[in-house]
Design a protein that fits this description.
The chain has 124 residues and is an alpha/beta fold. The chain is built from 5 helices and 5 strands. The longest helix has 13 residues.
């Protein structure tokens, strides 16, 4: 008898301080079969972070710290978890994001298709 192995839901850490954007991204990620843990600022992201997350979506302009500072602190703990910047800034800042350890970025507000593309690319 062949038994199907349950498909593991990707575990996502969403770091976003805007309640409206939080709600949209959580809904979109859940539609993509993700389990989402929400951090409302940089300090809570650092407190919640562990290697169990498959991917991190990180707002660059947080209320308490810069998202790039959060990324640097996480990178001191691990280099393997993909970190995707969420930003409303232009793509001219891409090199700066990548220099801090960010793997990719998405303009916000984003779409389900953009999130799916990132999930398919970064989560094996």
């Amino acid at each position: 008898m062949i038994t199907k192995k349950p498909i593991k839901k990707p575990l996502i850490l969403l770091v976003e301080d805007n309640p409206f954007i939080q709600k949209i991204h959580v809904q979109l990620l859940k539609k993509l079969n993700c389990e989402v843990t929400l951090a409302i600022d940089g300090q809570s992201a650092l407190a919640l972070y562990s290697d169990k997350f498959d991917l991190i979506f990180l707002d660059i302009n947080l209320s308490d710290m810069n998202g790039m500072e959060v990324c640097k602190a996480i990178r001191q703990r691990t280099s393997s978890t993909p970190i995707i910047a969420l930003t409303s800034e232009s793509s001219k800042n891409k090199p700066r994001y990548f220099s801090t350890g960010i793997n990719d970025f998405i303009k916000k507000p984003t779409t389900q298709a953009a999130l799916k593309r990132v999930l398919n690319y970064w989560i094996q």
